[in-house]
Amino acid sequence: MTNRLLFRGLFSKGQARTLAGQALAFAIALALGAIIILMIDESPVAVFMTLMRGAFGDAEKIASTLLQTTPILICGIAACIALRGGMFNVGIEGQLFLGGFAAAWVGFAFALPPVLHVLAAMTLAVVAGALWMAIPAFFRVRFGTNEVVSTILANYIATLLTSYLTIFLFKRPGGWSETPPILTSAYLPELFSFSRLNIGLLIGLALAVGVAAFFRWTSAGYAVTMVGSAPKFAEYGGVSVRRVGFGVLLVSGAVGGLAGGVETLGVHHRFMEGFAPGFGFDGLIAALLANGSPIGTIFTALFFGALRAGSLLLEVDTTASREIITVIQALIILAVSADLMMRRRGDRTGERRWKF
Predict the structure, then answer these.
(1) What is the pLDDT of residues 264-318, one digit of tens each?
(2) What percent of the chain has pLDDT over 90?
(3) CATH number of the domain at 25-345, please?
(4) How far apart, in whole angstroms, are the C-alpha atoms of residue 120 and residue 174?
(5) SS3 content of the chain, % helix, strand, coil (to 5)
(6) In this structure, are residues 79 and 284 in contact, taking their beta carbons and an 8 Å threshold?
(7) Are the beta carbons of 262 and 68 closer than 8 angstroms?
(8) What is the rounded CA–CA span in Å between residue 23 and residue 332?
């Protein structure tokens, strides 16, 4: 009885129903993944145990998992911001690429004092992400253009644009398709000597807590929530839906650019083609799986980071290919999307675009 009362205190009836639906979708995705593993004549238990060992087997593997988690977490926070405003920023991948390139350019083109160099590079990464999002955001609030379509298209342009700049304008002489390395003054400090894990993880955690607090305890955060959940009610209450929507998308893009800056300054120390594949999309799915909760995204991002890190051991200890992780992720995406659409279809108010 006490546990039931505690559960009701923590979650409303609607939130509990949402969590139950997402947990069921997640379980179905894992069950389907196990069936596919059986179809390739491998044991699902062996595969999942190998993933666990590869992700959490020792200190180095844990650090590797956290390293993979960092960009997914920051991209997930970018997605949470847009979702809370009732919009889908599917262009986080492109914002990440633009932010990563901008940070690399400041890192190798300017000689600045260490702390100032990092701040300048991160600032330009944030600005690049916000500016790249400004175009879809303008068309969204001015003409009602679907931001899902426009941000998806922007991803391709961002990827090709950064590739062009890297190959034809800033390519390192005699090297691969990459820019010159950034100066050491622009490096993000590492947390451990045996890993590239850096303070980007702390930035992501602080960002998650800060965004959650913003939505929970500020009037501006409440306005964003109202715009996302009941735009007509928000407009009736004096909130400028267009202005808030534009600002939400800009901030979401800025955080996406920040993720690219962290990846460049903390991990690769240069920009290269395909330097962070899939982190933006993984972040979006992590945010959806957490139902748009910044704190919940910490745990879902950790799950996806563990999948990425643990997959490195799969081809060593089992006959399964690491591509099975991509299959499992795709199944999770399909299951969560189906749950999301069913909840949206079941909403009878006709008011809310998305339920977060």
Answers:
(1) 999 999 999 878 778 999 999 899 888 889 999 999 999 999 988 888 787 777 7
(2) 54
(3) 1.10.3470
(4) 28
(5) 75, 0, 25
(6) yes
(7) no
(8) 11
Using a 10 angstrom Cβ sphere, with 0-12 exposed, 13-18 middle and 19 or more buried, the burial of residue 151 is: buried
Tokens describing residue 70: 């960092």
Residues 25, 27, 30: CA angle, nearest 5 degrees:
110
What are the structure tokens assigned to 13, written together? 């009836």
For tokens 């929507």, name the residue. 245
**Average pLDDT over all residues of the chain:** 86
Q: Is the dihedral of CA 287, 289, 292, 293 positive or negative?
A: negative
The domains of the chain are located at 25-345
Amino acid letter for position 125: A
Residue count of the chain: 356
pTM passes above 0.85: yes
Nearest in space to 349 (alpha carbons), one of 225, 248, 231, 241: 231
Q: For residues 334 and 344, give the distance between their C-alpha atoms in angstroms, rounded to a whole number.
A: 15
Quote the longest CA-to-CA distance of the chain.
70
